[in-house]
Amino acid sequence: MGVGVLGTGHYAPMKVVTNKDLEKIVDTSDEWIRTRTGIEERRIAEDDMDTSEMAFQASLAALEEAKVKAEDLDLILVATVTPDTPFPSVSCMLQEKLGAVKAAAMDLSAACAGFMYGMVTAKQFIETGVYKNILVVGAEKLSKITDWSDRNTCVLFGDGAGAAVIGEVSDNKGILSFELGANGAGGEHLYQDANEGYLQMNGREVFKFAVRQMPESSVNVIEKIGYNKEDVDYLIPHQANIRIMEAAREKLGISEDRMATTIKKYGNNSSASIPMALSEAAKSGRINDNDLVVLVGFGAGLTWGAIALRW
Ligand code: ACO
């Protein structure tokens, strides 16, 4: 038995905020944002669209594709750093919206690596035979913790949600290997401040960490299962900065068209970035049956995670 993805879904809010729009509110330029980050625009949720509602929209699509009924879910895991409220959890709100009456529900906080942590957690419950169908979601309304007067951070982030239903797949398919990690000593480089509740970041330090960790973890999960870099068909990195993503791609030696790059239109969606990119890649046919896919993320904590997946 393998443990893999039965269906994916994603949701991006309608409102588009371009780099030109941001030029009107902070001292920045379209050119600076594009060349330093790869971002061209991002989606921002309206006031009445909170994290749980975006999670709900993405989950409906994932359940439909997986042909799994909400009432057959055993567990809901939501990775988020921007819950509607600290409690009740987004996962409980989602359980209610979906009518997933049998499902246990909990949120998971590992920032941009959250979806990786969720997938790996789901795998354990299914492999041990405890649960059959698990919904893993990454959902963020980062716009509500963004200081819109701080050009160092406000140009980077966007809102959205991605979801995957995890369950049994055939032998030799699904999650083949993973790596999770954390380094709490780096917590000071990326955090939510206690006073105003804004995201604060030492961009250079996070960059240095990510540009080393993403390539390293990507290679580790491949080597763990005895494959070579050449065997990788598709790379889905956390969408934080195109230059960091390129470092991972170059380390694996794969061509540009085999890396998901949703960053251009969505920016950095934290825990939602990877599942949104995964869902888009699966739906557009960029991932095909039997492809070896590497998912890799890093985030506040500091945390990181990578998965090698046979589609
Ligand atoms: N527009 C114009 N200038 C800017 C902007 C902006 N939006 N933001 C910063 N600058 C300026 C800085 O003030 C600095 O000016 P100075 O030299 O006069 O001080 C100059 O641009 C260069 O700044 P650097 O920090 O050297 O720029 P860098 O090339 O490192 O790019 C960036 C900055 C994009 C933030 C980069 O460091 C980065 O991507 N870091 C990683 C961030 C990241 O991945 N964060 C997400 C983590 S995931 C999570 O958990 C949410």
From TrEMBL:
PANTHER family: 3-OXOACYL-[ACYL-CARRIER-PROTEIN] SYNTHASE (PTHR43091), BETA-KETOACYL-[ACYL-CARRIER-PROTEIN] SYNTHASE III, CHLOROPLASTIC (PTHR43091:SF1). It comes from Ornithinibacillus caprae. It catalyses: hexanoyl-CoA + malonyl-[ACP] + H(+) = 3-oxooctanoyl-[ACP] + CO2 + CoA; pentanoyl-CoA + malonyl-[ACP] + H(+) = 3-oxoheptanoyl-[ACP] + CO2 + CoA; 3-methylbutanoyl-CoA + malonyl-[ACP] + H(+) = 5-methyl-3-oxohexanoyl-[ACP] + CO2 + CoA; 2-methylpropanoyl-CoA + malonyl-[ACP] + H(+) = 4-methyl-3-oxopentanoyl-[ACP] + CO2 + CoA. Residues 239-243 are annotated as: ACP-binding. Its EC number is 2.3.1.180. GO terms for biological process: fatty acid biosynthetic process. NCBIfam families: fabH (TIGR00747), PRK09352.1 (NF006829). The gene is fabH. The keyword Cell cycle does not apply. This is Beta-ketoacyl-[acyl-carrier-protein] synthase III.
